Amino acid sequence: MFADRAKIYVRSGKGGDGHVSFRREKYVPNGGPDGGDGGNGGSVIFEIDEGLNTLTDFRHIRKYCAQHGEEGGKKNCHGKNGQDIIIKVPLGTVIKEAESGKVITDMSGENRRYVLLRGGKGGNGNQHYATSTMQAPKYAQPGQPAKELELILELKVIADVGLVGFPNVGKSTFLSRVSNARPKIANYHFTTLNPNLGVVDLEDGGFVIADIPGLVEGAAEGKGLGHQFLRHIERTKVMIHVVDAASTEGRDPIEDIYAIDKELMAYQADIAKRPQVIAANKIDCILPGEDPVQKIKDEFEPKGVKVFPISAVTGEGIKELLYYVKNELAHLDDKPIVFEQEYDPEVEMPTDDLPFTVEYDAENDEYVVEGPKIEKMLGYTNLESEKGFAFFQKFMKENGILKMLEDLEIKEGDTVRMYGLKFDYYK
Question: Residue 335: helix, strand or coil by DSSP?
Fold first, then answer.
């Protein structure tokens, strides 16, 4: 079955941790730090594959994880970088954040390759933290954590013109006559299951046309298959309403057009306002003495919607319709419709690669502040100088440490411990 929507889980690679080690050589009893940096984690990358036209593969594989970076080693050895994971998708795939439904990126136009989640940066080894006051740092930076997201993939076909209409009005026959598409055609009361694309070639250029299947009354609310396929209309610039002008199955073509318009408006009002043209099909079946096409013209042409009597079987009237549509497209913006980004994982998912904790140690009656961020700060700050101590106080305030201590109900004169250093707390 044609698949145009899928839900998947993706995760970037964690950065490798930096290493803590010291030179140990003959005659060098107190060698300096030589811990290597961790490798970067792999990224999650999406790429367009021209050979794909559905999202079927994502129904079988739903989890995609990049490789973690390796830990750094002794003797300044750098950890190996994690391998990226490259996910191939068909042209026109819109990638959304699953919970909010916001667009992350649209894989169409010039966007052929997109790095969705960058791998975590590898942590620095302890060699980076040696200072004049801390010559043997026993701390290395941990690698940045992996990022993970649940995504919705939606395939929205790339077409200039959309064919809409109820099942069995002749859309597939029309498409097969005017383009290179070869849809399966039969007198079914249900509907085509795939959005069929075709290229219409005219003497001075052409356009892409799509048969949008599944429209029935209530489609926008999920009845029938309509809600699965209405998304394929979203990129089209002109709509052709195909109706059975001869009422071969007893349907009223005017009521059908209003019903389709109602579904488009319910799904997305902007789509319903795009240029439209009516193809009054099956004129070869109209009985002598009847003129249903004139009734359709009287109803819709005063509203600015042009009506063309055609026969998809004999080809009558089709050329005039196609040139009218091409002329309409010529007056519209020729840029493809691309969905703008609404969710940026880089902004929405910040990572703090140097965390810290603030806790109360009841056994020693002390407040303990620890973590890589704290140790790093102590490594480059000279607390014995007035300027250095002022910087230390500012760091404590800006990082919210003072507030966290107050939330733990610290009182003046209580002791705060940080990696062997002890301070009395005063406001």
Answer: coil
First to last CA, the chain: 69
Give the CA-trace dihedral at 262, 266, 270, 276, to 10 degrees.
-20
**DSSP letter string, 111-177:** --EEEEEPPPPPPPPGGGG--SS-SS----PPPPPP-EEEEEEEE----SEEEE--TTSSHHHHHHH
Please return the burial class of 255, using the count of CB atoms within 10 Å of its CB with bins 0-12, 13-18 and 19+. exposed
Lowest mean pLDDT, pick from 24-33, 41-50, 271-280: 24-33
Number of helices (H), then strands (E), belonging to the chain: the values are 10, 18
Cβ distance 192 to 210 under 8 Å?
no
- Mean pLDDT, residues 104-108 taken together: 90
CB atoms within 10 A of CB 202: 13
Instruction: Give the integer Cα–Cα distance in Å for 264 and 274.
Output: 10
Q: What is the pLDDT of residues 126-176, one digit of tens each?
A: 777 676 656 677 777 788 889 999 999 988 877 888 888 887 788 888 888
Which residue, 291, 266, 268, is CA-closest to 280?
A: 291
Position with higher pLDDT, 226 vs 195:
195
pLDDT value of residue 225: 44
397-410 core/surface letters (b: 16 or more CB in 10 A; e: else): eebebbebbeeeeb
Cα atoms in the Cβ-side hemisphere of radius 13 Å centred on 270: 7
Residue 337: in which H helix or E strand, if any?
none
| Mean pLDDT (whole number) for 205-210 | 80
Element holding 252 (H helix, E strand): none
Q: How many CB atoms lie within 10 A of CB 217?
A: 16
